[in-house]
Amino acid sequence: MSNWESNVRKVVPYTPGEQPKDSGIIKLNTNENPYPPSSRVKTVIESFDNAKMRLYPDTNSTVLVDALAKRYNVKPSQVFVGVGSDDVISMAFMTFFNSDKTVLFPDVTYSFYDVWADVYRIPYAVRPLDNDFRINPDDYICENGGIIFPNPNAPTGVFESLDMIEKIIKANPDSVVIIDEAYIDFGGESCIPLVDKYENLLVVQTFSKSRSMAGMRIGFAVGNEKLIKFMNDVKFSINSYTMNPLSQICGAEAVYDEEYFKETTGIIIETREYSKKRLSELGFSFPDSMSNFIFASHNSIDAGFIFEELKKRKIFVRYWNKPRINNHLRITIGTREEMEKLFSALEEILQMKG
Ligand code: PMP
To answer: Which end of the chain, N or C, is more open, meaning fewer C-beta atoms within 10 Å of its C-beta?
Structure first.
């Protein structure tokens, strides 16, 4: 009998949020942006020469890297781009978490980190957040093979100060610290200005949330030149042509439309603050969010029940049946109209139990 299965790289894959096919759904489950991308992206798509698809894309994504370097005031050699920040972070795991020492991240965090650690056979350990879902920096001041966490954290929305993060980076000169800033544009302060000060800091961001381009799959990392060179060496050892030409130019155009970026992130922040008020009035509590979602639990009604009832009403939010967070719902901030429909549905559901 053959035994090939014993040689297979076995993993339990990440479970993404549902992408329902039905129309008429209010989709508040995957932290997408409710607004379309910049109109400059549409113009580029409409004028794109189909014949260009015949050719391989620019392996260096030069137009996009240059736009990002200008926007973030760094050199192009300090920018790495990938197919969504999942691709970027996965490459960073492979490149920098390469010892037999333990990689550290919080117990409540982005649920892809343990999946990447498993698929690349990287040893890891989690550090519990405190009861308010805060990171204790002292938990990360010990021997380790690398550190990663999002700021603001997901799915909590909690933002940690740069002073606290700097303390962790400073205390770990022998390992790479990755700050996943997927949600930084909704009111937080980015660590990017620290990359010239600390050569072990890698900051990752995405176009999927604040730039409304989840479908285009664009993510990037900023760090010192040495880090970026090491990441590119690994990337070019796997697949040179990751980002398609349309994503490259659309991404650059989106970066150049700063006005639209400010306008849409501003509206989402405003809607988030209004939603906090409404959720509190309905009996929910939540850590203060600096992201485009709120991680809420109700003071008397079970989150699993609310999740199912919302789904029956075609409103999708995210729920995890996992320790510590199985009584919370992660609610993405949609348009004001979508949020009003959510609040009406919640009122109805709460009355069922009232
Ligand atoms: N990091 C965090 C914390 C996220 O929530 C997400 C979105 N699922 C990502 C990274 C990846 O986003 P993308 O691959 O769309 O850039």
So the answer is: N
